[in-house]
Write a structure and sequence with these properties.
The chain contains eight helices and four strands, in the order βαβαββαααααα. It has about 210 residues and is α+β, with helices and mostly antiparallel strands. The structure holds glutathione (GSH). InterPro entries: Glutathione-S-Trfase_C-like (IPR010987), Glutathione_S-Trfase (IPR040079), Glutathione_S-Trfase_N (IPR004045), GST_C (IPR004046).
């Protein structure tokens, strides 16, 4: 049995974690389905009934992990030799932007896609403030730094990068030179191409 079982749907946020599996060089088997045919009892694994979900078969234990950002960081932790964890000096930026992308940035993008409006007088109550504010924070970082944690690719880039890959592709994040250059940098990697090719083939076979 492989060390990890990966539950995914080809056209989904599962792509974010497949990229991480390939960056880490993880030994995984996949359970691919579509939303109409989720495996029986999938909610035992993820009560949210959402993908991605990962099970780590660890000795006598099966550890379940959900949430793409958490899965990706978990894979970096369980594969330290892959060199995807931040060093002492990169750690602050690594966690800052990983959590920022999974929280405020994603919420801001989804709020815009759903056309949810935050009344101006209540912007302070919304953790993401506004999409403009969240993007301007990221733009300022990515104008001065090549990657989420600083000057080198780390696992945070699989998640932060995915937000920008998808955002620019679907127009939910506006074009900006810093965002486009960042997407070009993070996608120019063999693990990204490998993972992307698997999901592209699954989508084609659809
Ligand atoms: N916060 C979750 C979001 C996961 C999520 O919403 N996945 C979608 C696919 S992109 C899903 O499984 N939707 C099916 C459903 O909710 O029924 C994560 O980052 O992993």
């Amino acid at each position: 049995m492989a060390e990890f079982t990966f539950y995914t749907v080809a056209m989904s946020r599962g792509q974010i974690s497949r990229w991480a599996l390939h960056e880490a060089g993880a030994d995984y088997e996949q359970v691919v389905f579509d939303f109409a045919t989720r495996p029986d009892h999938f909610t035992d694994i993820n009560p949210m009934n959402k993908v991605p979900a990962l099970v780590h078969h660890h000795g006598a234990h099966d550890h379940v992990i959900t949430e793409a950002a958490a899965i990706n960081h978990y894979l970096a932790e369980t594969h330290p030799d892959a060199g995807l964890l931040p060093d002492t000096h990169e750690k602050a930026a690594y966690f800052r932007w990983l959590f920022f992308a999974a929280g405020p940035l994603e919420q801001a993008v989804v709020a815009q896609a759903m056309d949810w409006k935050v009344p101006q007088e209540r912007v302070g109550m919304a953790g993401f403030g506004s999409l403009e504010l969240a993007l301007s924070a990221m733009e300022s970082w990515l104008s001065d730094n090549d990657f989420a944690a600083g000057s080198r690719f780390t696992m945070a880039d699989t998640y932060v990068g995915s937000q920008f890959i998808w955002g620019l592709r679907f127009g939910s994040i506006p074009e900006a030179p810093a965002f486009r250059a960042y997407v070009d940098r993070v996608t120019n990697r063999s693990a990204y191409s490998e993972a992307n090719a698997i999901d592209a083939k699954l989508i084609d076979e659809g």
